[in-house]
UniProtKB/TrEMBL annotation:
It comes from Flavobacterium zepuense. InterPro entries: TerB-like. This is TerB family tellurite resistance protein. SUPFAM superfamilies: TerB-like (SSF158682). It comes from the Bacteria.
Length: 143
């Protein structure tokens, strides 16, 4: 097995774990709404989750390891990706903010400031900022 095969496998496993974590958050109320399912469909394609893997993860998302971001910067980067997916496709409609709040909480942002973080995230995306600008602005939003 070559080193590139190992890298691809690790990357694929991390994507599956990330997707499974998002499925867990989306299903925390016991079911998936149509909007959540549409969002997951788009996310699965972007994370290169196959149809079979998608079905397996939906059937048992707890079978996959959680890969929580350890560093604050990594949480912000993941928040940027999730925010961009939620905002760019307008798949979730009026539930964008609600679901993004659930994702932000699952990423480890505190309930006390999560609404401010979500509002700031969406406002930065309206301005069409790139990842680096997003992370910088989020790190310095209290200054």
């Amino acid at each position: 097995m070559s080193i590139s095969d190992l890298f691809d496998s690790g990357f694929k496993d991390r994507n599956k774990g990330h997707f499974a974590s998002i499925v867990r958050v989306a299903m925390e109320n016991g079911h998936l709404s149509e909007e959540e399912r549409l969002f997951l469909d788009v996310l699965a394609k972007r994370l290169e989750i196959s149809g079979q893997e998608y079905k397996e993860i939906l059937a048992n998302p707890k079978a996959y390891p959680i890969n929580p971001p350890y560093l604050h910067v990594q949480r912000l980067e993941r928040l940027y990706d999730l925010s961009r997916m939620v905002y760019a496709d307008h798949v979730l409609g009026p539930k964008q903010k609600e679901i993004l709040t659930r994702f932000a909480l699952a990423l480890g942002f505190t309930p006390g400031n999560v609404q401010y973080i979500v509002d700031k995230s969406l406002s930065l995306l309206v301005m069409n900022v790139d990842s680096d600008t997003f992370v910088y602005e989020m790190q310095h939003m209290n200054k």
